[in-house]
Amino acid sequence: MTIKAIAAAAFGLGLALAPLTGASPARAEDITIGFTAALSGDFAAFGLNMRKGLDLALKELNAKGGPAYAIDAVDDRGEAREGVLIAQRFCSDSKIDVVMGYSFSSIALAAVPVFDQCKLPVLASAVTSPALSNASPYFRRNVLTDAVQGEMMGTYAAKTLGLKNIYVLNQQDDYGIGVAKAFSAAAGKDGAKIAGSESYMLGTKDFRTLLTKVRAAQPDAIFIGGFYTEAAKIAEQARGLGIKAQLLSTDGALNVELMKLGRSAVEGMIVYGMFDPSVATPATEAFLKAYQAAYNEAPSAWAALGYDAGMTLGAAVELAGKGGKVDRESLNAAFGKLKDVPGVTGPTTFLPSGDRNGALYFLTVKDGKFTLAPKQP
Question: Where is the signal peptide (predicted)?
């Protein structure tokens, strides 16, 4: 899907602040969402932003009348063991109709078998591992996979930017490995040489030894397959070592914290994502205004995905209600039948794999803010 297609689909949104089409579902009971993500620690920004977007969507849905939406939120602290325990808790609570959130693919992967057993539908918004494709008929996500995003970025780097010699760095986990592998394959296919690759652990603070190897390879670009915390440190230390290569990174770095941590070192870095206020269309203006009014800040891509997940849930509840009782099974069936639900990140339709079709924006840091990169595919 092209950026123009996203804009056209978003135009049909009318923000999604407008009422969903069709009759209200015949259900008096509440819809209770089990929300889980890393809500504390170094990577809390993903989960907290998703929650803000979801809360805004639920406020709008509740204002319509009909079923009341409520959240039972639990911090998984970024630990797979916590993810399994939380999944077991949600499964055993008959009031939980659907599970949303998830910051880390590894935690979702650990929890999916639990949800599959109790037939509890999941709609995640920040987990991108290809291993989650076809993981369960009860698991869906409204964010693109690492394989899709990495491939798009690799093609963009080689074909659109014309980069010829790229060094790849990635965090040593499902996310970093998956996106780096897809990036390298696509960039290589389109004519770029992968000068070398290295991995690092989350939480690493000193990259100078690794970057000394990078400097010796004299790349014209460095792709950082990881989150904003390490991407900012890599940028600072690379510039400190005199490395002038173009810096590229992922949706994991698409966060205002990148600029706060990396300051001038991240100026010019190019990342990708499914939404950013700097490239919002007129049709998403109401969302931007509502979010700014609610939180006194601009929404991130994760907030937008959380918002769209909430509105997608509303559409699924409406559809399930037309057939009678809304419960876990009817909601899961409704998710599979949804087609082109309007949203600020584009329309949502789920593939049989549980994945979503979509497109990316390519953004650059300019004057301490994200803006649309001058070159787009």
Answer: 1-28
Number of independent structural domains in the chain = 2
Helices (H) and strands (E) in the chain, counts: 12, 12
Report, as an integer, the average pLDDT of 76-90: 94
Write down the pLDDT at residue 283: 65
Domain that holds residue 289: 3-144+282-337
Residues 56 and 168 in one domain: no
Residues 248 and 154 in one domain: yes
Instruction: Answer yes or no: is 369 within a domain.
Output: no
Q: Are residues 100 and 209 in the same domain?
A: no
Q: Which helix (H) or strand (E) segment is 214 a member of? A: helix 208-217
pLDDT of the residue at 2: 39
**DSSP state letters, 147-188:** HHHHHHHHHIIIIIS---EEEEEEESSHHHHHHHHHHHHHHH
Confirm if 307 and 299 have CB atoms less than 8 A apart.
Answer: yes
Determine the distance from the C-alpha atom of residue 274 to the mean position of all C-alpha atoms in its chain, rounded to a whole number: 8
- Where does the pLDDT of residue 374 fall: very low under 50, low under 70, confident under 90, or very high at 90 and above? very high
143-194 pLDDT tens trace: 999 899 999 999 999 999 999 999 999 999 888 998 999 999 999 999 999 9
Instruction: Determine the 3-state secondary structure of 367 from DSSP.
Output: coil
- Is residue 367 in some structural domain? no
Pick from 343, 179, 341: which is nearest to 275 by CA? 343
Angle between helices 146-155 and 174-189 (to 10 degrees): 40
Q: Is residue 342 domain-resident?
A: no
Q: State whether residue 370 is helix, strand or coil.
A: strand
- What digits encode the pLDDT tens for the residues 305-340? 999 999 999 999 999 999 889 999 999 999 999 999
